[in-house]
Amino acid sequence: MEFPGVYLEDVGLLALGTLKLTDKSLSFKSEKGGRSVTVSGDDIDGLKWQKLGNKPGLRVGVNDGNVHRFGGFKDADLERLQKFTDAHWSQPIEQSNLFIKGWSYGNAEVKGRNIEFSWEDKPIFEIPCTNVSNVTANKNEAVLEFHQNDNAQIALMEMRFHMPVDAETEEDVDKVEEFKKAVLAYAGLEAETEQPIVLLTDILCTTPRGRYDIKVYPTSIALHGKTYDYKIPIKSINRLFLVPHKDGRSVFFVLSLNPPIRQGQTRYSYLIMDFPKDEEQELELSLTDEQLEESNGALKRTMDGPIYKTVSVVFKAICNLKITEPGRFIGHSGTPAIQCTHRQNPGLLYPLEKGFLFIHKPAMYLRYEDVSSCHLARSDGGTVTRTVDFEVDMKSGGPIIFNTMEKEENNKLFDYLSKKNIKIRNPTRVDARAAESSDDEIDPYKAAVKAEGRKRDESDDDESTDEDYDLDKDLKDRKTKEKDSSEGSASEPDDEYDSGSEQDSSGTGESEPDSEEDVPSKKRKSEPKEKREKKEKKEKEGGKKGKKEKDPNAPKRAQSAYFHWFNANRLSLKEDGDSVADVAKKAGAKWKTLGAEDKKEWEAKAEKDKTRYETEMKEYRKSGGGASSKPSTSSKKSSGPSTSKAISKEYISDSDDSDEDEKPKKKEKKAAPKEESEDEEEESEASDASDSD
After folding, report:
1. What are φ and ψ of residue 27, in 5° steps?
2. Is 374 found in the same domain as 298?
3. Of the given ranges (263-277, 344-358, 630-644), which has the lowest mean pLDDT?
4. Is 623 in a helix, a strand, or coil?
5. How far apart are the first and last CA of the chain?
6. What is the CATH number of the domain that holds 396?
7. Does residue 254 fall inside a structural domain?
8. CATH for 211
9. Residue 565 backbone zone (phi > 0: left; psi -120 to 50: alpha; other: beta)
10. What's phi and psi for 407, nearest 5 deg?
């Protein structure tokens, strides 16, 4: 029998999943990889039909005192469950109604492993003792602090119980202290004075970073560092990993924590210890004979060997969990680790039998059943072929990308994913020869080096000769070449611009260049440059004229209904680590899901804002606003100086220092380019005539 869409209460979070009932057990599996529960039918101690989250629920009691609460049922499911539990487990379901009158007084008792607050034998609420993180006993008051679940939107932080002194009871009995001891017995909060099972000194941790002294108790772990201290309940440890480092010199022992430990705003979902592979240490365990027998021979009073092996065995026995180690995957380096980066943070990726483990920063574990597809692609779109990008698409959430993976790991990872029947978006292996040829064609640096080498070899072949050098012959050849060049220059006609080369000897008195051939070449180069500068100047002026300046006195534009809603709900949509684009994307998706009734409020605000804008705009235009921003035709016409009356600054400054005879020269400078070219032609003709005379 299965019940999909049922949720489990897990430290303040109602985790959705599927509840499955069989002849021998009851099991719950979360949809998003959260907490999973399995209870044998023989261990069940009482079933109650009790509301959870305003919906019918099932309260399952266990022989060891724990309680599991499931909600999200329908009223019709009670008959089906009743028939099944009576037939297979011989457990009737008792209907239990909560006392919901809202009174703040009652009886607080520790029953089993739970704190029950009731009145007139009817429960008001119930809290597992394992959710308690700290207990403080004052004179007549007990203060409880609770663990936090990061996935829960609303969390219970603190609760205070006032316990007045009863005159009828004996004064020697302290109710607050008795209540505190009862809670501590099942909350996994041993006092520091108690002796731990084992003490690990100066252990290197990568997450949280630092060296810590670790005390292992039966129900909790205490970490003591130079700056911070942490307490981890054994209940919050849900997975154990033991993986080697790629260098082969150390081993990582990883504890997956839910809920994570916190330090300020930082959360650590994994505790990662780094042990040297060759280090051996002898550990003494403070366990009774009964505890040693319960471990089935896994634990001994004295344990020796490699430190990472002994520590992993101790945690395996205390947490009652299996240790996940690397499976059949072996990478190009000969180890199960792949060197890569995630968000520019270097780390190691381990493809395990049931998921991917990434160490570290941030450490994560991706189960294969939560992966929809994978993608292997060359980095930077194929321009750099030495590395590969590995993209993992999750069924819930966005893709997770691991960059700068060595290209030799491509085929290894491709074959492993194919055996695990994981969908790959580009199902092709990379041929080694094809990869080498593509490297030669694509890599620009390699191609440039090869081309330079070829040119150097060719030049060496052309210049290298085996003949002896003859000095006399070389001098004769040079003289012959000089003689031929002088005769050829005298017999050949002059070039097109050689007429100006004799102008230096005509006695004009002006310094001319060596030949007229240089003059037109300079003009040919300068003319397009001048045109280009004029064009750029016009474009700049046009751009400045086209750009409108914003008037600070102009009224603010009206906003749409969506933006009114978005500004009011921005903080509730934003989560830690979200960018502006992520928040906008969430807002757009949520706005689409809103109905017409939900949007009425914001549409009314938008209509009111629109009316406000139109009213303010009319007043703004009446007062003359907006006229200055429009370019006027008169300003355009009067922007330049007048040619008839206005005198340029250059002309005035020159006229002050020069005589009146120089005024015509200044006017000649303003002549058209065509007139300048005609004057130059006339001067060249005159110079040719003088040369012929």
Report:
1. -140, 145
2. no
3. 630-644
4. coil
5. 124
6. 2.30.29.30
7. yes
8. 2.30.29.150
9. alpha
10. -65, -20
Q: What residues form DSSP beta bridges with 306?
A: 280
Query: Does the structure show a pLDDT above 60 at 132?
Result: yes
pLDDT band at 356 (very low <50, low <70, confident <90, very high): very high
Task: Measure the CA–CA gap between 664 and 647, rounded to whole angstroms.
Answer: 14
Q: Domain end: 296, 325, 354, which one?
A: 325
Token pair of 531 as six digits:
């045109």
Estimate the crossing angle of helix 561-573 against helix 580-593, to 10 degrees: 120
- Structure tokens of 8? 């489990």
Number of Cβ atoms within 10 Å of the Cβ of 36: 13
Supply the Cα-derived Rg of the chain in whole angstroms: 44
Specify the residue for token string 């009314």.
Answer: 604
**Domain count within the chain:** 4
Residue 433 has pLDDT above 60, yes or no: no
Residue 359 DSSP SS3:
strand
Residue 247 included in any domain: yes
Residue 171 has pLDDT above 90, yes or no: no
Last residue of a domain, one of 128, 157, 187: 187
164 and 279 co-located in one domain: no
Domain membership of residue 626 (yes or no) is no
- Assess whether 318 and 333 both reside in one domain: no
> Per-residue pLDDT tens for 534-550?
667 666 555 544 556 67
Residue pair 99/90 in contact (Cβ under 8 Å)? The answer is no
Domain range enclosing 39: 2-95
Provide the token pair at 176.
Answer: 């607050």
Residues 6+ apart with CB under 8 A from 479: none
Contacts of 227 (CB under 8 A, 6+ apart): 210
Q: For residue 360, say if its preceding peptide bond is cis, omega within 30 degrees of 0.
A: yes
**Are residues 354 and 318 both part of a single domain?**
no
Reported as a pLDDT band with limits 50, 70 and 90, residue 214 is: very high
pLDDT > 90: percent of the chain? 20
Are 126 and 170 in the same domain? yes
Could you tell me the strand order of the sheet in which 114-119 lies? Answer: 107-111, 114-119, 122-128
CA 231/CA 147 separation, integer angstroms: 11
Instruction: Based on the fold, state whether residues 285 and 211 are members of the same structural domain.
Output: yes
The answer to the question of residue 642 being in a domain is no
What sections of 344-470 are H helices per DSSP? 409-419, 432-442, 444-463
DSSP, collapsed to helix, strand or coil, labels residue 446 as helix
pLDDT at 654 over 50: no
Q: What is the mean pLDDT of residues 202-223?
A: 91
